[in-house]
Structures are given as C-alpha cells and as structure tokens.
Design brief:
333 residues; mainly alpha; 77% helix; 0% strand; disordered C terminus
Length: 333
C-alpha cells in the first residue's frame, strides 16, 4: 500500500515531501490512464476482435495473433480499474481489497502478460516461416488458431506454479505445505524467466533470421501469396513497443528477486522509490493494451476495408445493399 506516514524510521521533511510528490505523480498518472487511455483501449480492442471475427474468411496469420493480443488486452482492461483505483496507486482510493482479490488480479495480469509476449514471439517466428516457405502453409490461419489455444493453456498452467507461491505467501503459516513455499522471489523468478527471458531470446532470434532473409532477394519475393509488406513494419513496431512497455515491469521483478535472494530487503526511501517505480512500470504494462490496437488500426491496410464491410452489413441487414449487388450482377451478365 502506498503511504508516507507508516514508517518506522525517522524521516526528515525532504523525504516526506519527496514521498508525497511521488505518490501524487502516480495518482495523477493512474487517473489520466483511466480517463483517457482506458476507454480508447477498451473500444479499440473490442473493435479489433469484432471486425476480424466477423470477417473470418479474410483473416491472415498476423490477424489471428493480433486478435489474441486484443483479447488479452481486454483482460488487462478488466484488471486495470480495480488496481488503479485501489490504495496502491491512488491517494484517493475508491476501495480496498483483500488477499483473495489481490491474488486473482495478479493471476489475470500474469496470464495476460504471458499471452501478449508469446503471441508477439510466435508472430515473429511465423512471419519468418511465411517469408522463407510461403507455400508450405506451416503458418496458416488454421494452424495459428490452434497455436493461440495452446498459448492460453500454457499461460494458465505457467501462472498456476506462480499462483502456489503467491497464495502461500498470503496465507497463514499454520499450513505445513505452504510454510515451505512462502517465497515470493521464486514466483518472480518463474515469471521473469518464462514471461520475459524466453520470449526475448526467441524474438531476437526470429528478427535476426527475418533481416537475413530480407537481404537475400529471391523470385519468391514477387509471389502474390506472400504477406503484405506492411506486415513487416507492423511486426517491427509491435515487437519494439511491447518490449519497451513490459521491460520496466520485469526489471522491477528482477530487482525484488535479487534483493530477496541476497537478503537485502529495501527500507525507507529506497522502498518507497521501488514502490513508485513498480507502480509506474505496471502502468506502462497496462498501456500496452492501449498502444497495440491503435498501431494495428493505423498500420494494417485491410482493417479499414473490413470495418467498412462490417458497417455496411449492419446498415443494410441480411438483404444487402444495392450498391454491393450491382457489381455482382454486372459480372453475371
């Protein structure tokens, strides 16, 4: 919980002023996100999912991954108001929650982060496969949908191991099984390795392969079945933004893990600074659900066409519009 008064040490007025300033910065940043970014993120993520699911026939492999990321973004949108209006982020906390709610929010956050990172990672690898072997259909839409199902299942299973450590860290020590597992650093280590280190290595390897194959011009580059060139720019921007927004959060996990292993727990001003940086880094992580659909909306050339098609269907109903039927009638004649 964010607080400047509950401290066992004797702080001078400058430390108190700094603590109050950091708390106000975090509070106003949280409120700005909830007022400006949260509604836009919710609308664009829902729009991305709806437009693509209503145009399943024209979906490509990158579209499936971005729909997966958008669904994870909607989960983050559910978690964000509860956390950002709580006492850890806001001086004017709307409510307080118990350990059960805290653990539930943490697990949902971890699952969403794993889905987002691994969807970005597999998008990079599948894009390389599509560039290198365009006619093998190894990265087809059908296969990608099954892969996304495995991503969610793997994220839930991975979060379950961390869930045991987090639960045992908040329950009574009378439970013998949990008394041996009250180690939050172990849970942070699991999330750090599986949620960041492994995807970072895989994305770096995929980008190296993609850059290498782009230098080698082949007749396959003129193949009409290949992905749109704009997908390459969307991929690079998506990877850069995702890692830029999630790296600070995993860096705070690394700091907490190392300080716990070395037995040097943070106190006083260092502890308050750590809480501030951790809160700000989590706010940046929430912002990934705001940035990704906006990038997809502006960099994907087919999204506007799909959106217009969906709006025409809603406007014209089941019978269809005369403007849409006239070209078909001309082809028939």
């Amino acid at each position: 919980m964010w607080g400047c008064v509950s401290s066992n040490e004797t702080d001078d007025s400058s430390d108190q002023r700094l603590c109050q300033d950091l708390g106000l910065i975090l509070s106003f940043s949280s409120l700005f996100y909830l007022i400006v970014c949260f509604p836009i993120s919710l609308c664009y993520n829902a729009l991305l999912v709806t437009v693509n699911l209503c145009n399943k026939v024209s979906m490509t492999m990158p579209d499936v991954y971005f729909v997966n990321i958008a669904i994870a973004g909607l989960v983050l949108n559910m978690v964000a108001p509860v956390q950002l209006l709580g006492p850890s982020y806001n001086h004017w906390a709307t409510w307080d929650f118990n350990n059960e709610v805290y653990i539930t929010l943490l697990i949902l956050f971890n699952i969403s982060s794993l889905v987002i990172m691994y969807s970005t990672t597999l998008l990079s690898l599948d894009y390389y496969i599509e560039r290198a072997l365009p006619r093998t259909y190894m990265s087809s839409v059908y296969n990608t949908k099954h892969v996304c199902g495995f991503i969610w299942g793997g994220a839930v299973l991975t979060s379950f191991s961390s869930l045991l450590f987090y639960v045992c860290n908040h329950v009574s020590t009378k439970i013998i099984e949990c008394s041996k597992m009250q180690n939050k650093e172990a849970a942070d280590a699991i999330m750090m390795f599986i949620g960041y280190v492994v995807p970072a290595i895989a994305v770096f390897y995929a980008l190296v392969l993609i850059l290498r194959i782009r230098k080698e011009s082949t007749p396959l580059d003129q193949d009409s079945g290949r992905l749109d060139p704009s997908v390459h720019r969307l991929l690079l921007v998506s990877v850069g933004v995702q890692f830029a927004l999630w790296t600070p959060y995993y860096a705070t996990l690394l700091v907490h893990m190392l300080s716990g292993i070395q037995g040097r727990h943070l106190h006083g001003q260092h502890l308050r600074t750590y809480y501030f940086v951790r809160g700000l880094s989590k706010l940046l992580a929430f912002s990934s659900s705001f940035a990704m659909p906006l990038m997809y909306r502006h960099m994907n050339k087919s999204f506007s066409r799909k959106l217009r098609r969906l709006l025409n269907k809603l406007h014209c109903g089941k019978q269809g519009c005369s403007q849409e039927r006239s070209p078909e009638q001309q082809v028939v004649t």
